[in-house]
Specification:
Jelly Rolls; seven-stranded antiparallel β-sheet
Length: 477
C-alpha cells in the first residue's frame, strides 16, 4: 500500500507526505488490462495469442491540501501546470518539455520515492478553482485526481549492472572486451554476462549502454553490433567457429600468432569460375540443441588479403543437401575493415523438437567473376543470437580513442561525447528504430544473460570498456 505520493516534472514536485503540500488520503492501484490478437486453428481447440500488449491504467488518487488558502491555490496551480504539460507531451511527439510522473513510497520500501510511472493525461477540470470553492465552503480541501498512467512502474533512478566474463570478475564501473572471443588468448572475450539473480522487477527493462573506446589508434571505431541472448543458457553455445577447425583451405601461419583467433586462420584459394565449396565445419547436436530454433546473425571474419570481384554465400547442409542457403554476399571494397555479413539464419533451420537434433554442416561457397586464382583468408565464423539486437551506425565519423558511444534505449537516444569540446554529438543512429535492447527478468532467477559486441574495424586486438544501466520495471507494486 502506498504511504506517500508525489507528482514530479523535472525539478518541480508536489508532495503528499503529510508534511510538505498535504496528505495522501486514498490511492487504489489498478492492475493493467491486456489487449491481444487471438489466432484460432481450424483443426484444434483453444487459441494462440501471438500479439499482446498492456493497456494504460486509469486511476484515482484522493489528496488533502495543506496550508493557507494562498499556499493551497499555489499547489493546485502547480498541479494544473504539470498536468497540462503531460497532455502536451502526448499530443506533440517533438515536445521537449519534461515528462510528468507519479512517484510513490510503498509500505516496506527500503527508501522513499523508489518507483514512478509516467502520467499520460489527467481529468477533473481546473484544480485551482476547485480548491478555492472547497476552502470557502468547507474550510478544507480534498481533491480527487483522476489520471491515466503507463501500464508499468519503473525505478526513479537508473541502476548500474554488474558485468563479467571469464576473464574479469563481476562488478560495476566498466569491464573491458575485445573484438573477438579467442580460444588461443583466454583473456579475450567479445561478450559480457549479467546474472539473472541481480535483476529487479518482473518486466523487461531497456538498457543504457556506454562504450569507451580505450584502444589507442588513430583509426576511429565505426559501426557497432549489439546482440542479447536471454532465452537460453549459454552452455554448449560456443558462438565462434574457428576456421582452422573446419575443412577447406590451408591452415596458416606455421606457428600460432596472437593476431588471429585461436592463433591460426585458413588460406583458401580456387581457380574455377563457377561455384565452389570453400570451407565447412560441423555444428554438433549439442550446439544445435542450445540454439533451440532461434535466429542467429552470422559473420565471417577475414584475416588479411582477399581477391576482388568475388562473392560468398552461407549454406546449412545435411550430407549434400542444402536445408538453408543465404543470398550471395559481395566482398566489401574495404575488406580489411569489414565483416562478411551473411545475414540471419534460424538454427536448426526448421523445427525438430526440443532435443537431439541431427548434426548439420555450416558451409561457405565462393564464386569469382574473373578468370584466374581467387583467394581469401578466413579467421573464424561468428554466430550470435538475436533475442534482442541493434546496430549503431555512424554518419561517417565514428568515435575516436578516449571518446564514448552511448546507446541509450531508456531515453531512446544515441550520441558520442568526451571530445575536445564538451557536449553530446549526434553522429550515430540505430537500427531497427523503435526496438529497444532489454534485460529480461526470468522466473527461474538463475543463470545469466549474455550481451555480445562486434564493431568496425574488426581487428581482434581492438578493445572497448563497457558499462550498462537499466531502470527496473514492475507490473504492479
Amino acid at each position: 500500500m502506498a504511504s506517500k505520493m508525489r507528482f514530479k516534472s523535472g525539478s518541480t514536485t508536489v508532495t503528499f507526505d503529510g508534511t510538505t503540500d498535504g496528505y495522501l488520503v486514498e490511492y487504489d492501484q489498478q492492475i493493467p488490462q491486456t489487449s491481444y490478437v487471438a489466432v484460432r486453428r481450424a483443426t484444434e481447440d483453444g487459441q494462440e495469442r501471438p500479439s499482446m500488449t498492456y493497456r494504460d491504467v486509469d486511476e484515482l488518487a484522493v489528496v488533502m491540501l495543506e496550508g493557507t488558502l494562498a499556499q493551497m491555490k499555489a499547489t493546485a496551480r502547480k498541479l494544473n501546470a504539470m498536468f497540462q504539460r503531460a497532455r502536451r507531451t502526448q499530443i506533440d511527439s517533438l515536445n521537449e518539455e519534461d515528462e510528468v510522473f507519479i512517484e510513490v513510497t510503498m509500505d516496506g520500501d527500503a527508501s522513499d520515492w523508489l518507483w514512478r510511472s509516467k502520467i499520460l493525461k489527467v481529468g477533473g477540470g481546473n484544480l485551482e478553482d476547485r480548491a478555492v470553492d472547497m476552502y470557502l465552503e468547507q474550510g478544507s480541501v480534498v481533491l480527487d485526481i483522476e489520471f491515466t498512467r503507463r501500464f508499468c512502474w519503473e525505478y526513479t533512478s537508473e541502476v548500474e549492472l554488474g558485468l563479467y566474463h571469464p576473464g574479469v570478475t563481476k562488478g560495476t564501473g566498466g569491464k573491458q572486451i575485445y573484438n573477438c572471443s579467442d580460444a588461443y588468448l583466454s583473456d579475450r572475450y567479445d561478450y559480457l554476462d549479467i546474472d539473472n539473480a541481480d535483476l529487479i522487477g518482473d518486466l523487461p527493462a531497456p538498457l543504457r549502454i556506454e562504450l569507451d573506446n580505450d584502444y589507442n589508434s588513430a583509426t576511429r571505431n565505426a559501426k557497432v553490433w549489439i546482440n542479447i541472448n536471454y532465452k537460453q543458457p549459454t552452455t554448449n553455445l560456443d558462438h565462434i567457429l574457428e576456421a582452422e577447425d573446419g575443412t577447406g583451405g590451408t591452415t596458416q601461419p606455421g606457428a600460432a600468432d596472437y593476431q588471429y583467433s585461436g592463433g591460426y586462420y585458413k588460406a583458401i584459394t580456387w581457380t574455377s569460375t563457377g561455384n565452389v565449396l570453400a570451407w565447412y565445419d560441423e555444428m554438433s547436436s549439442n550446439f544445435l540443441e542450445a540454439c533451440a530454433g532461434r535466429h542467429f546473425q552470422v559473420f565471417g571474419k577475414p584475416a588479411g588479403s582477399v581477391s576482388t570481384q568475388i562473392s560468398f554465400k552461407l549454406v546449412i547442409r545435411f550430407a549434400v543437401t542444402a536445408v538453408y542457403q543465404s543470398a550471395w554476399v559481395r566482398v566489401p571494397t574495404s575488406w580489411s575493415d569489414a565483416w562478411l555479413d551473411f545475414g540471419v539464419v534460424r538454427l536448426p533451420p526448421s523445427p525438430v523438437g526440443d532435443s537431439s537434433p541431427y548434426p548439420l554442416e555450416i558451409a561457405i561457397y565462393g564464386r569469382g567473376l574473373n578468370v584466374g586464382t581467387k583467394y581469401f583468408n578466413l579467421d573464424y565464423v561468428r554466430l550470435v543470437p538475436m533475442d534482442r539486437w541493434k546496430q549503431a551506425l555512424d554518419f561517417g565519423y565514428g568515435f575516436a580513442y578516449t571518446t564514448y558511444l552511448v546507446v541509450d534505449d531508456i531515453n531512446n537516444i544515441q550520441y558520442t561525447y568526451d571530445w575536445s569540446t564538451a557536449g553530446r554529438v549526434p553522429n550515430y543512429r540505430t537500427i531497427p528504430t523503435g526496438r529497444s535492447l532489454y534485460v529480461t527478468p526470468v522466473p527461474e532467477g538463475s543463470g545469466s544473460q549474455r550481451v555480445y559486441f562486434a564493431w568496425m574495424p574488426h581487428t581482434n586486438a581492438r578493445t572497448l570498456t563497457v558499462r550498462m544501466w537499466y531502470r527496473p520495471r514492475k507490473l504492479s507494486l
